[in-house]
Amino acid sequence: MLLQVSHLQKIFQTRFSKEKTVALQDVSFSVEEGEYIAIMGESGSGKTTLLNTLATLDKPTLGSVILNGQDLTIIKENKLAEFRRTHLGFIFQDFNLLDTLSVRDNIFLPLVLGRQKVRIMEQRLEKLVPKLNIADLLNKQPFELSGGQKQRVAIARALITQPELVLADEPTAALDFKNSEGLLALLEEINDTGQTILMVTHSAIAASHAKRVLFIKDGRIFHQLYRANREASKFMQEISMTMTNLLGTEVR
Amino acid sequence: MFYVKLASRNIRQSISNFLPFGLSSVVMFLMNLMIATILFSPSLKKLPGAGNFAMLLGLGLTVLTVFATIFMIYSYRFLLKRRTKEFGLYNILGLKKRHIVRISILELMMMFLATVVAGTVLGIILAKFLYLFLIHLIGESYFDLQWSPLAVGIVTAIFACIYLLLMIISNISIHRQSSLELLKNASKGEKEPKSRIILALLGLVSLAIGYYLAVTVVSPLDALTKFFIAVLFVIFGTLLFYMSFTIWLLKRQKKNKNYYYQPKHFITVSGMLYRMKQNAVGLANITILVTMTFVTLATTVGLFSSINGFLGDYFLRNTLINVNTTQQRSIEFIDQVAEKNGLALNNKIVYELSNRLTGAMNDGRFENKQNLANLTAVNFMTADTYTQLTGNKIHLRENETIAYPAVGRFHESNVRFWNHTFKVKEKISEIRNFPSTSMMASNWLILIVNSKEQIQPILDDASKAAGNRYKMGYDTTISADLTAKDAKKFQKVLSYYRVNGNDPIKRINDSETKIEQDDRGEAKTIAGMPPTFERYDDMHEQMTSFAGGFLFIGLILGFTFILGTALIIYYKQISEGEQDKRSFEILQEVGLSKDEVRQTIRSQVLLVFFLPIAVAVVHFGFAFIMIQKLISLFGTTRFNLLLLTSIGTIAVVAVIYYLIYKQTSRAYYRIVER
Ligand SMILES: Nc1ncnc2c1ncn2[C@@H]1O[C@H](COP(=O)(O)OP(=O)(O)OP(=O)(O)O)[C@@H](O)[C@H]1O
Ligand SMILES: [Mg+2]
């Protein structure tokens, strides 16, 4: 087992009011190596909160997250950055590329921060380039790229550290339909090579490319679906049905 | 009325945006008002040397006005940039651009009124305080500084013009942008700047020319004329230096992969390179302002502090009397007059020099040209006089001379006057019982020759070359200690006598013929001059009031420059903080710890802190050579003292600069870590 999440709870309390928001409530699930999991839920259901907790960007109120036998919730503050750098890869909704760096340097960024040798950085990049089709982009600046291109660069940056787990937060939200499709296919391919991916989304289309979908509502996980060997479009129908039936909402 | 409400609400709501602008506005107003109040004060006319002082104040006011204009534009553009989004929103919500312009003009008018009111009130309070300070500096106690409506009126008028300019700028910039652009703000990406070797070289060459001009000044007057040219070259060079040379350097660092791909260098180099274009102007501004502060303060402090030393060099005794005839006749005359009036001259030192030749010295050739750049005054001294002053015997052949360059340099091995040539046997650096400085702005060269027979033909030639009708000869300087009472009486008595070379000394009944106002030209000289009379105390008072006024203006300007620097740095930090905020968030997500973030910021900030100071110190190093010459225009040769005061001022300014940086960095951290 790669990742074990048990009894996770997150309560937000703003400084100025007594009011508490329970964002996560007794969330437990586990992830095997090589899995591709989508966590689905409507807006405000706690998806981002969950992902941030897994990403060590946020500490849970209760519960534990164990990655390869190490409890992430008890890592010391000053070791967190290094941990993220070496074990996790991130893909964000709005790409989060640095304007000050060229595309190549953006991809190198986590390795540079990890004081990796230049030769190794270049070797790894060389392997990623054909897979992600970014050869022409390397010498450009981020502002010259389209959304889809940016997201491919962001994926390259997530993969170059060869992370145990890639975390993606609504990676298709800022893309148009065609680019979304391309990106989802790309993530599937990456997963086929053995890379474990965990993605949160509120889009049934995006979720349908995963191998397993967890449903979250009001901070609780209460259902899951396996794709098995189905076509993505078939799987999507079931996901939509589940959303409408179980959650009582229309899926967009 | 609606717009007035909207405008005043805007100011109140985004006070953090308006505050720096308002602050710079009030401070600039205040500084201008200070100088104007003194300039238009009725008691200024009572000061000795009021004309000079008023001229200095006028110059100070001009510099400040130009500075205030530039600075207000800078501040206002910064304010505008931060408010484009707000204006864009108004536009989309249905306000026409015309209305937005009206709002921004109303805002400016409110700021203007606030500036005038606050500036005047603060001005009245501060004037009293500054006045005491000024009195202390120039050592006058009857100077009464009053609140002057005229000064307020003039400064208000100046600022009305500046604000009018700002309104025009606001109008243009709002009309030029489309509403979407207004809304989108300045978040456009920017291509990495190209390194332009030619510009880099041009910058370096420009700096080199400026520096070269500074290093090669030969005389005080030369420094005065070259100063502004050198300043222009250096300003231009500084700007190009930051715009191209630093980019070139950063690019080179980036090319070196093993250096560049290290966490610290990676972020710093790429970050600096990314914003070097906008940074260049800011850094150049800071550098120039810091240099200006150094130069202004070092010059004025140096001038003020070197008065005593200078007067000490000039006055061998507390009184100097110069009589326009030979030593023998002068002594006889002075002793006789002193005895008749019962006056005591103690510790007398007497020496005789030839009348002064003024012209250009080129490769040891004296030319009868009044060329400012290398104007040199030459006096001849006989070997006998030298021996009498120093007690040392010297032997000179007919065509030999000993050179004493009291002011300026002299390296030639021959010196030639028309067709009389002397071989320079020796160069000396002092003469005992002889002043080592003069009251002239030009260089001063003393040539010691064997006897008067060698001197007279040259004097005759000089007289002919100048087309004079009178004969040139000798004058005698008598230094002695006199009590204040005796000195006063003596000066009065002597003013009745007229002396001209070998003509008989005449006594006239009307001393009221004011010699300075007598414009008979040559005829005046022929009619004879009264002996000149200089007192240490008079001169000290006069120079202190001049240099004190100078220092006062220097301090006000220096203070304003520092304040300008502070505001520019503050603006820089705020705008960069806002740009960097997102970058540092991303970096933390990707795997940079908080501590590392802080380290990176510090090294980036430190570099930007040290660069302008370092460049400004280098600039100043070259300016120092000029300043030294410029000050010797008022008469100083004390290199060490000037160096010391300069280092002192630099240290003080650097400390203030550091404190400013510390303080404004906090604003940066607050934004980035929010
Ligand atoms: N920093 C915070 N402080 C207080 N409450 C928060 C904070 N972050 C999230 N919440 C609350 O926690 C709940 C879950 O938020 P979360 O951002 O995880 O939702 P989400 O599923 O990602 O929604 P969306 O699909 O809109 O992104 C919401 O009710 C939200 O208001
Ligand atoms: Mg979310």
UniProtKB/TrEMBL annotation, chain A:
Keywords: ATP-binding, Nucleotide-binding, Transport. Signal peptide: none annotated. PROSITE patterns: ABC_TRANSPORTER_1 (PS00211), ABC_TRANSPORTER_2 (PS50893). SUPFAM superfamilies: P-loop containing nucleoside triphosphate hydrolases. GO terms for molecular function: ATP binding. Pfam families: ABC_tran. SMART domains: AAA (SM00382). Residues 3-243 form the ABC transporter domain. Coiled coil: none annotated. The keyword Iron does not apply. Belongs to the ABC transporter superfamily. This is ABC transporter ATP-binding protein. It comes from Sporolactobacillus shoreicorticis. The lineage of its organism: Bacteria, Bacillati, Bacillota, Bacilli, Bacillales.
TrEMBL record, chain B:
The keyword Cytoplasm does not apply. The chain crosses the membrane at residues 21-41, 53-76, 105-138, 150-174, 195-215, 227-250, 280-304, 546-571, 605-627, 639-660. It comes from Sporolactobacillus shoreicorticis. The keyword Iron-sulfur does not apply. Residues 61-170 form the ABC3 transporter permease C-terminal domain. It comes from the Bacteria. PANTHER family: ABC TRANSPORTER PERMEASE, ABC TRANSPORTER PERMEASE-RELATED-RELATED. It is found in: Cell membrane. This is FtsX-like permease family protein. It is a multi-pass membrane protein. Belongs to the ABC-4 integral membrane protein family. Keywords: Cell membrane, Membrane, Transmembrane, Transmembrane helix, Transport.
